[in-house]
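Regression test case RT-17, inverse folding.

Input:
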């Protein structure tokens, strides 16, 4: 992959899927940037946004063990696309057709390894959607997987 420039991203997942980079999980029910039956791997630019993204979708403390994986990606900037503007409604809660159709069209195009998008939870942070069908996917690897535990105070009710 010409040169050794690298990019680092993060993924929070159930422990049994900690090293799975296939994007199969998102193909089961779809995600913000992909329709059902289209694999996509969701990563965050840092561990904190991974935690926040997972937390806002959780209905309580995780019932299974969780891990935080550090992922190494090729550093060639040409492999990534940060679209401007995004479709109106990309940040709807819950995710809806505008972002799902946009991301699915991008996945189908095979034009880039990664789609860089703002977090719908905290738009100043970035997430990355990886296309597992892109040829450069073969150069992605898990560097480290560590156990992850939420601080129990995050799930305490506040009045």
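Golden output:
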């Amino acid at each position: 992959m010409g040169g050794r420039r690298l990019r680092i991203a993060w993924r929070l997942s159930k422990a049994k899927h900690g090293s799975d980079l296939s994007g199969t999980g998102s193909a089961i029910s779809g995600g913000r940037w992909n329709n059902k039956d289209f694999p996509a791997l969701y990563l965050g630019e840092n561990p904190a946004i991974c935690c926040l993204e997972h937390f806002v979708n959780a209905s309580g403390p995780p019932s299974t063990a969780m891990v935080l994986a550090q992922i190494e990606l090729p550093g060639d900037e040409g492999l990534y696309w940060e679209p401007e503007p995004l479709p109106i409604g990309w940040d709807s809660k819950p995710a809806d057709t505008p972002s799902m159709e946009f991301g699915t069209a991008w996945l189908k195009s095979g034009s880039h390894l990664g789609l860089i998008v703002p977090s719908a939870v905290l738009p100043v942070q970035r997430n990355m959607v990886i296309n597992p069908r892109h040829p450069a996917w073969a150069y992605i690897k898990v560097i480290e997987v560590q156990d992850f535990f939420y601080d129990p105070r995050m799930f305490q009710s506040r009045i």
